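Re: the 263-residue chain
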Amino acid sequence: MKRTFAAFVVLLSAATTGLSASNRQPAPPGAFPGAPPQYTVFSNAELMRGFLALSFGSDLRIGAAPRGIRRFAHPIRAAVISAGGVDRAAAMRGVLADFSAQVPALQLSATDDAAAAADVEVHMIDENDIPAALEEAFGARVAKTFIRRTNPQCMTSVKSNPDGSILHSISFIIVDKGDNVFLDCAYHELLHAFGLSNHDQHNPWTTLNQRRMVGYLTVYDRALLTMLYDQRIAPGMTAQQARERLPAVIESLRLARPPKGSK
C-alpha cells in the first residue's frame, strides 16, 4: 500500500506581550532579562480552547491537509546539530532537558548520533543561513515562497503519517541574534516539533502567539503538551473526539482550577 505523508511548516516572527488571567508569577530562572511573567492558574475552558486551537491546523502546509491530532506515538529522541557562528549547543540541550523534566510523557531524550537516529533534528544556524537551510530542506521554489510570505526567523517542519503519528521533525533555530531570540525560537519551535502545530494570536498565555516573545516553557504550554501526550489523546483523533475526551484528561491531571462552588 502506498504511504502518503504530510509535512507542516511553522514559522516564528517577532512578538509583543499581552497577558491576563490569575496567579501571575515571574518568569522562571534561566529566562532572558525582561522575559514576561506568566499566569499559572487556568480554567478547564481556557485549556480546552488553547488545545483545540493549537493542536489542529498549521499556518503553512506541504502535502495533504491533516484531519486529526498529530504527535509522536513513541519515545522521542532529539539531536542538536550546531552549525552557527555562536555555539549554543549546550544551551539547546538544556532546553531539551527542560521539556523532558517538565513533560515526562514526551519520553524525550537527547542522542549524539546526529540526524541518523533522531526523531527531532534541531539545527543551530545563523540568521543569514535561513534561506539556504529552507532551500536545502524543501527545494528552491518552496523556500522562496515561504520567505516571500513570512520573512521567517526560525522554522519547524513536521512530517507525519496519515494516521497522525509524527515521523520526523526538523527545527531551525537562530543562534546569532542574542539570548532572547535564541530562547524564544528554541521553546516556540519545539512546541511545534512535538505536535502543537498552529499559532493563535488571540491567546495571551501561549508562546505560540506570535505577538509575544517568551523564551521559556510556560505553565500553560506545559499543560497543553501534557494533555497532548496523555494516553487518552491519540494521534489522528478529530477535534470533536478530543473535545469529548479532554475534560476527563484535564480533571484527572489536575491541570485546571476547580469550578466555583466545588469542594
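The chain has seven helices and nine strands.
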